[in-house]
Amino acid sequence: IVMIFTLVTAVQEKLNEIVDQIKTRREEEKKQKEKEAEEAEKQLFHGTPVTIENFLNWKAKFDAELLEIKKKRMKEEEQAGKNKLSGKQLFETDHNLDTSDIQFLEDAGNNVEVDESLFQEMDDLELEDDEDDPDYNPADPESDSTD
Question: Torsion angle of alpha carbons 102, 104, 106, 107, nearest 10°?
Answer without folding.
Answer: 160
